[in-house]
Amino acid sequence: MPKIHVIGLGPGSWAGVPVGSLELLGAGLPVFLRTAMHPVVPELRRRGLKFRALDDHYEQGETFAQVYARIARTLLDEAKRAGGLVYAVPGHPGVAEQSVRNLLAAAPGEGVEVVLGPGQSFLDGVLSALGVDPIDGLLMLDATVLRSDQLQPRCHTLIAQVFQRAVASDVKLTLMEVYPDDHPVTLLRAAGVPGEERMERMPLYEIDRVDWVDHVTTLYVPPAEPGDEALRRDPWYLAGLVRRLREPGGCPWDREQTHRSLRRYVIEEAYEVADAIDQDDPDALADELGDLLLQVLLHAQIGAEEGAFALRDVYAALADKLIRRHPHVFGDGTAKDEAEAERMWRTAKAREHAGEDEDGSALARLKWARPPAQVAVQAGRLAAEAGFDWRRAEDIVDKIEEEAAELREELVRGDRDRLEEEFGDLLFAAANLARRCDLDMDRALLQATRKFAARFRQMERIAAADGVKLADLPDDRLDALWRRAKAGAPGRGNSSFGARR
């Protein structure tokens, strides 16, 4: 079976080339170098070693993925033709070498054996120069495929393959999605190579202004300090703050909360998010979304303390749901437009809830987890679909008047429980009128409230101009003020302010 021996040339100095690598280089097999741009290559030439460098592959590929795939293809073909070869890479063959990973993945199907040989990683020299112990938490990433979601501000971070200023510029922009522009970083070139090592600390925004970056350059990003912007923007740091609030010595109010006690705040914060959307205020929306997220984190923390679920379970449940309900994105399905995408989503959702509505009732599909007005409207709609409905909208108005009369009776009796029941009946009748007339009950009520607020503010202005206070005025004066305010404010209606105190 053809065999490819993959060896490392070390971080850059001739003294760093392992003896085992030197022995394989002189074993008489064809030698291929991933790149001739390595400090030990001139010495290899001086010693008369024959090799083929694959730098031309970098010019033929549009992406690094294509380059490394082409390199693997070349090596596999040459190994089968020659019966075996030596493939030498910078550093260690098992560290930051995508071409080697490609070889290992493809070789079994090609009938070729790949053997990883010796090498010394650039990590040794970099960590030694920086004085960093990796046990404190080390993240190593590839500059050519860097994404902001890979970054962990609490870890030491090394970004390899910053081989030119264009790559440094891309790295800078990606890092700035997480770190502040002036976050201190360190550029290192040829770490551990005598006479060639260079190390310079600078603010992040300057890394693409350095003219000495090349193929042996690495960027070091130190962990963010407590209070740094990078930490405050980290989701898990935020989750840690919420956990601290619930721990002994934390906030007395937060420690006392339960799922049930927080229920009202989830609803309240969701409405404040909706209001920020209505106001078209991006800053307010970001702030209110944070308040809503706090509720999610609090509930997740309480769930973790009770052993019921943790924040990762919340993430996993949502991820699974998104994948299930979007087969046209994450599966084999296709959706040509918004309507078809919604149909596929509803089909997937119905499949999830199959078997839940087996009681046969027309109200089995009633969804209780929504604002009460919407629940009432849906209940009326489902009953109407089953044939139970008023014949005319005017009949519903009659029902509203009937419920209002019963409510008036309970006001006289003073039974609070009965009063609440009759008030609910009145609201339910109003919800059915909204359904029958295709009105948005929530929006209608909000518009009425805004109209009232505008007129009330006008009353306050008129009273202030007259030098009086609303609280000091009798009912007839208040009624007159209300009519004056209504005359000067938009909207229709003939109700008087009346004795509303």
TrEMBL record:
The keyword Hydrolase does not apply. The keyword Isomerase does not apply. InterPro entries: 4pyrrol_Mease, 4pyrrol_Methylase_sf, 4pyrrole_Mease_sub1, MazG-like_dom, NTP-PPase_MazG-like_C, NTP-PPase_MazG-like_N, NTP_PyrPHydrolase_MazG, Tetrapyrrole_Mease/MazG_pred. GO terms for biological process: dATP catabolic process; dGTP catabolic process; dTTP catabolic process; dUTP catabolic process; methylation; response to stress; TTP catabolic process; UTP catabolic process. SUPFAM superfamilies: all-alpha NTP pyrophosphatases (SSF101386), Tetrapyrrole methylase (SSF53790). Residues 257-330, 395-455 form the NTP pyrophosphohydrolase MazG-like domain. Signal peptide: none annotated. Gene3D superfamilies: Cobalt-precorrin-4 Transmethylase, Domain 1 (3.40.1010.10), MazG-like (1.10.287.1080). Keywords: Coiled coil, Methyltransferase, Transferase. One of its GO terms (molecular function) is methyltransferase activity. Residues 390-417 form a coiled coil. It holds the Pfam family TP_methylase. Residues 3-207 form the Tetrapyrrole methylase domain. NCBIfam families: mazG, PRK09562.1. This is Tetrapyrrole methylase family protein / MazG family protein. It comes from Alicyclobacillus macrosporangiidus.
